Amino acid sequence: MEQLLQQFASGLANGAIYACVALALVMIYVSTDHINFAQGEMAMFSTYLSWQLMTWGLSFWAAFIVAVALSFVMGVVIERLILRPLHNAPVLSIIVVFIGLLAIFNSMAGAIWSYLIKEFPSPFPKSSFGIAGVIGPHQLGVVLVTLIVLGLLFVFFRYTPLGLAMRAAAQNPQMARLVGVRVDWMLALGWGLASSIGAVAGIMVAHIVYLDPNMMAGILLYAFASALVGGISNPAGAVAGGFIVGVLENMVAYAGNQIEKATGIYIIGNGEKLTVALIIVIFVLTVKPAGLFGRVVVKRV
Amino acid sequence: MAALLEVSGLKAFYGQTQSLYDVGFDIPTGGITTLLGANGAGKTTTLRAICNMVRTDGTIRFDGKNIRGMATEEIVRQRIAHVPEGRGTFTTLTVDENLRIAAYTRRDKQGVKDELDRVFAYFPRLKERIQQQAGTLSGGEQQMLAIARALMLKPRLMLLDEPSFGLAPLIVQEIFRILRRINEEEKVSILLVEQNAALALDLATHAYVLETGKVVMSGPSDVVKNDENVRKSYLGY
Question: What is the ipTM of this complex?
Answer without folding.
Answer: 0.90
